[in-house]
């Protein structure tokens, strides 16, 4: 029986999925990475985040400005970057002697890999007085029980769809099964409407598809054990690839989808849905604010709705299991106590409510800010997340960095017509052996 979970349980479900994957690590480093101890000393914090367009661009700047006003000794050098570019920048920076003071952090196995650099601040003692305000969600940004990051929002992946295009195609309601999704694809094609957009140029949107087929085909225990023990030996993983192949054979995506970016420009997969050029997209809750600068249609949000990934007949996955994760920030050791205090401010109910009301964040990590959600579709997403019996963190984030990247690459190759369902599993095994 699928029992509806309360909001604290929703936070704990994401936390468990993230924290159970983190390996035991001993951070290394040298004296040059030690944090300053004087909390009142003047400091300038370099802040890297992925809000490189409004509204996020302006909102994050206003958060920095307000904190500086309240704490004149703390100044900021804010350097926003596009999401994919930022991930590469962070990886390179953590190999240098001068990483940014504050940077975007998605937790999970990737965080554990980063902690090995010895350059990420352990803020456990500083956050102890207030971290409980976030419930269990903060555990996903821990390694060995130590706090190395603070989340500001949580995520779940599902289908954003155009109600107007569904109506044109005679689709009565949101698909609940794969058979109904396939039927919707057929009806949309009959009306010369692109059924589904995807930004395969960026690879990670492809992984959402394989991941959802996997958590529908595999039991929750199998998924947990695979992530924990790094063994993909259950036949359900191959079956997930076979399901994906069958779906790809229906040709549900836009022309030239392999060269389409996910979020950059009106021709991106997000832009295609925002401008009514495609009926659906499998993406995270963040897609609604992502679409704002990609269309001139100021009423586009009213034409959208959301539904979860359909069920698969015969699959062993727990009904309602979701794919998700979250966004947060980590501090460099050199940033010192001012950085951890700033993240306390970012995690506060007031700031999180501001993030939600401005479309900078969608599903806040602080439960006290949930009431700030006003969009009807996002309320639907929040309700689904509240009721999910388990949230599997994106595999590329849950797994060690090299393994997650190899899995994404193999799935992207599969979308490009290379490899096989077994090949995806083999790529995972090879990456584990070589890590």
UniProtKB/TrEMBL annotation:
Could you tell me the keywords of this UniProt record? Answer: Signal
PROSITE patterns reported in the protein's UniProt record: PROKAR_LIPOPROTEIN
Which domain of life, per UniProt? Bacteria
Signal sequence, start to end:
1-26
Q: Which InterPro entries match?
A: Bact_solute-bd_prot1 (IPR050490), SBP (IPR006059)
Q: Name one Pfam family in it.
A: SBP_bac_1
Can you say what this protein is called?
Answer: ABC transporter substrate-binding protein
Question: What is the native source organism of this protein?
Answer: Dactylosporangium vinaceum
């Amino acid at each position: 029986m699928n029992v509806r979970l309360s909001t604290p349980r929703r936070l704990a479900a994401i936390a468990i999925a993230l924290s159970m994957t983190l390996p035991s690590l001993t951070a290394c480093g040298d004296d040059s990475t030690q944090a300053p101890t004087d909390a009142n000393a003047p400091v300038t914090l370099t802040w890297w985040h992925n809000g490189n367009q409004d509204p996020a661009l302006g909102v994050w700047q206003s958060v920095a400005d307000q904190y500086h006003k309240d704490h004149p000794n703390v100044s900021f050098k804010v350097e926003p970057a596009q999401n994919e570019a930022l991930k590469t920048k962070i990886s390179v920076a953590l190999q240098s002697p001068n990483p940014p003071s504050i940077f975007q952090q998605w937790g999970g196995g990737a965080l554990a890999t980063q902690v090995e650099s010895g350059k990420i601040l352990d803020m456990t003692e500083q956050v102890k007085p207030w971290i409980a305000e976030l419930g269990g969600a903060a555990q996903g940004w821990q390694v060995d029980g130590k706090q190395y990051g603070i989340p500001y929002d949580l995520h779940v992946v599902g289908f954003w769809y155009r109600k107007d295009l569904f109506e044109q195609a005679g689709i009565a309601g949101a698909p609940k099964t794969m058979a109904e999704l396939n039927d919707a694809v057929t009806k949309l094609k009959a009306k010369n409407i692109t059924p589904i957009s995807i930004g395969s140029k960026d690879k990670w949107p492809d992984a959402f598809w394989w991941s959802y087929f996997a958590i529908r085909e595999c039991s929750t225990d199998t998924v947990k054990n695979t992530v924990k023990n790094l063994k993909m030996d259950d036949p359900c993983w191959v079956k997930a690839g076979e399901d994906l192949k069958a779906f790809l054979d229906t040709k549900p995506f836009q022309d030239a989808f392999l060269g389409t970016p996910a979020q950059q420009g009106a021709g991106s997969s997000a832009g295609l849905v925002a401008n009514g050029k495609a009926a659906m997209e499998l993406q995270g809750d963040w897609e609604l604010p992502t679409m704002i600068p990609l269309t001139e249609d100021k009423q586009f949000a009213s034409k959208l709705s959301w539904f979860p990934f359909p069920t698969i007949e015969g699959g062993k996955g727990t009904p309602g299991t979701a794919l998700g994760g979250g966004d947060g920030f980590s501090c460099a050791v050199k940033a010192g106590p001012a950085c951890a205090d700033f993240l306390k401010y970012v995690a506060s109910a007031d700031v999180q409510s501001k993030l939600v009301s401005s479309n900078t964040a969608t599903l806040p990590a602080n439960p006290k800010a949930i009431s700030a959600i006003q969009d009807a579709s996002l309320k639907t997403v929040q309700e689904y997340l509240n009721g999910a019996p388990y949230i599997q963190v994106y595999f590329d984030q849950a797994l060690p960095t090299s393994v997650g990247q190899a899995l994404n690459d193999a799935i992207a190759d599969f979308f490009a017509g290379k490899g096989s369902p077994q090949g995806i599993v083999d790529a995972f095994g090879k990456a584990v052996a070589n890590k």
